[in-house]
Amino acid sequence: MKKMTRTMVAALAIVGIVGGGSAYAFRGGEGCSPQAQGFSPEKAASSRLEKLHADLKLTPEQESAWKSWSEPIQKQASVMGERRSEREAMAKLTAPERMEKMLERMKEHEKAIESGLASTRNFYAILSPEQRKTFDAFQPFGGKRGGSKGGQGGGPRGGPGDMPGRNPS
């Protein structure tokens, strides 16, 4: 029993070291980045919002509420696109400085989510029951994430086909 336990622990340690080392070694080059593959947060947000807008079949009276709800989302997508260029600058910071920046961004993100929640509640309140069902079924990032996909897609976030604006080739 002891020998089997030791063997299992050793095997798990080897798998962890090899797997972790492989993941660390393959960080990918520029050709692997979302930008290099044609992905743009602005395009993705615009595409998803256009689809939701069409699916909701809003009345003319609901359009101003739609605009109030969707414009901040577009602005946030633009900010995300701009922040991608800051990665090189972040890499030059010390570890504590990077952590401070990350904490600042987390606080900004929390405020944005709180604001988005209030905006979503206001927009949701003017929707009909049928529109609410459509809105509730909406997947903001192109579909379900994580879990088994039965061999479809790649990685935990699915394949390139799950992301609008992204070139799958």
Mind sketching the topology for me?
Blueprint: H1 2-25, H2 41-56, H3 63-83, H4 87-91, H5 95-125, H6 129-137
**What is the chains' assembly state?**
single chain
Order of helices and strands: HHHHHH
Q: Helical residue percent? A: 55-70%
| Rg value | 21 Å
Poorly predicted runs = 21-30, 147-169
In short:
The protein is built from 6 helices and no strands.
Could you characterize the architecture of this molecule?
With 169 residues, the protein is mainly α. The chain has a domain at 40-138. The chain contains six helices and no strands. It has helices spanning 2-25, 41-56, 63-83, 87-91, 95-125, 129-137. Helix 2 runs antiparallel to helix 3 (63-83). The longest helix is centred in the middle third of the chain and has 31 residues, at 95-125.
Question: Top keywords for this entry?
Answer:
mainly alpha; disordered C terminus
